[in-house]
Amino acid sequence: MNENHSYPSTNFNPGNNWDHQQPLPNDPAGFWIRFGAILLDGLIIGIPLSVLSLILTGGSSGESVFTNVLSFLYALLLPVFWNGYTVGKKICSIRIIRVINNEPPHIGNMLMRNVIWAVIVGVTFGIALIVDWFMVGLREDKRGIHDFIAGTQVVRV
């Protein structure tokens, strides 16, 4: 390991080369807890947001665009300004961190995590999403494709 970097003392390398003799630097959040956080975000944020959009747009065709834009901004910006949490993640005691230094994500991480990931899911007609779910469920570090793209990990706190 290159001694010029100040990685955690668990021989962690952001290139994802785990030294299996050492414990993982964080407690990774698995599929079900992350799925629960997404469901909570949908119930607590998504449903009221849809109702608000319906009221503000009067049920016009702009309602779904308005809801989608606000949902995108919520998923993009809240983790940046709230130390890696969304409302659902906070309730489930999990958060997004940058792998390289265990700090909350920056806007660039979240753009890659959300925008680039959405493009990949679209180009693969959703197959990447299924692969991602399996990765989160089966990998020891619980990182999915979108985590690797953004250099992030979801961990328990």
UniProtKB/TrEMBL annotation:
The chain crosses the membrane at residues 31-56, 65-82, 115-136. Keywords: Cell membrane, Membrane, Transmembrane, Transmembrane helix. It is found in: Cell membrane. It holds the Pfam family RDD. The keyword Ligase does not apply. It is a multi-pass membrane protein. Coiled coil: none annotated. Residues 28-151 form the RDD domain. One of its GO terms (cellular component) is plasma membrane. This is Putative RDD family protein.
